[in-house]
Design goal:
Length: about 375
């Protein structure tokens, strides 16, 4: 199978979908790899390293799409890439279809095979290709939130860890999954007073056992959220429903009850966001203010730390990508149920229920397209 690695062109997206180490693994198995020139520069890999590992370097993104049987990316194709996608071409990347209907319609029209990192699911319900970026995003949420709490950028002027004689800042984390756990751990490490809200009691019990003493676990409901947002300095949205839109846990009217300079970080922005007032931002212009509340809603947070993020992501994706190349997508998905769950759109048909439900589209059972 011919592998194509285009350069990411989403704003300030510096990650790359395949490292030179990954190229070498494909080359050893006789799969030709074509990498767009400078695709790895943002992550610290130059063209010479890719060539030494066995890749061929192509000058343009058009050449990469034209030659490849499988495109491996980090982020969903943006509009300028849609015309380059061919029928039956396999795209292996993050898609987050349920948050953006035009992308969904474009991929249906392309008749490509769209296999989404974020819905590859193990029998225990965990999402192995989402976990590494969730770990990065959860930790970054506190790093960025702490920065935007500073007064020069319109925050409350609160130091999360406080100092002797001054109480620490208060952090509220909505969701106790991977993102929420990592965010709470980082905030606790800075010395903040942290509360995690979730509706999964077994998960809350687990977190109560493993978290440091300055982290409280609380069962989530609307009444509790409305009460707690009034006096918390930093609120992290960390809700995920695989393949579907995130629920709106903080509504527009709630902002008026928060203190001026409160910071909201919505890590669920890729899935539509868990705040009603969320809209995607970029690293160039990461925040906006509504009712004196600072919103940070960057849709590719891990792209700001690509030297870490690329390695974390490719460690997880490479074994699956090799299966797809070695067996072809149909056989690989027949043999591997978690990989099969990654199929979202196949040859013009929506085969993932959450995507179909999001836009009222016809759903086709994935087993009928393989």
């Amino acid at each position: 199978m011919i592998i194509g690695v285009p350069k990411e062109i989403k704003t300030n997206e510096n990650r790359v979908a395949l490292t030179p180490a990954g190229v070498l693994e494909f080359s050893k198995r006789n799969h030709p790899v074509y990498v767009q020139s400078t695709a790895g520069e943002g992550s610290g890999f130059d063209d010479d390293e890719y060539e030494a590992a066995g890749a061929k370097i192509l000058s343009t993104i058009e050449e990469v799409y034209a030659v490849a049987d499988m495109i491996i990316k980090v982020k969903e194709p943006i509009e300028s890439e849609w015309p380059l996608i061919k029928p039956d071409q396999l795209l292996f990347t993050y898609f987050h279809f349920a948050s953006y209907e035009p992308l969904t319609e474009a991929m249906i029209k392309s008749k490509a095979v769209c296999l989404a990192y974020e819905t590859v699911e193990l029998p225990d319900g965990s999402l192995p290709l989402l976990v590494p970026m969730s770990e990065v995003a959860g930790r970054m949420a506190i790093q960025e939130g702490a920065k935007y709490l500073e007064k020069p950028v319109k925050g409350r002027g609160v130091l999360l860890g406080g100092v002797p004689g001054v109480a620490p800042g208060k952090v509220l984390v909505l969701g106790g999954g991977i993102v929420g756990t990592q965010a709470a751990r980082m905030a606790a490490g800075l010395g903040a007073e942290v509360s995690i809200l979730d509706i999964n009691l077994p998960r809350l019990r687990y977190l109560s056992e493993v978290m440091p003493p300055n982290v409280n676990t609380i069962f989530s409901n609307e009444y509790t959220i409305r009460k707690m947002i009034r006096d918390h300095d930093l609120i992290i949205g960390a809700i995920l429903i695989p393949g579907a839109k995130a629920p709106k846990l903080i509504t527009a009217d709630m902002l008026k009850t928060m203190r001026p300079g409160t910071v909201l970080v919505d890590v669920a922005v890729d899935q539509g966001g868990c705040f009603e007032t969320t809209h995607p931002t970029t690293h160039d212009n990461p925040t906006y203010i509504i009712d004196h509340v600072v919103h940070y809603c960057v849709a590719n947070m891990p792209g700001a730390v690509p030297a870490t993020s690329t390695l974390a992501l490719t460690n997880a994706t490479l074994p699956y990508a090799l299966q797809l190349a070695n067996k072809g997508w149909q056989k690989a998905c027949q043999d591997n149920l978690p990989l099969r769950k990654g199929l979202n759109v196949v040859n013009g048909k929506v085969v993932y229920q959450g995507v179909a439900d999001a836009f009222g589209l016809d759903y086709v059972d994935v087993n009928t397209v393989m």
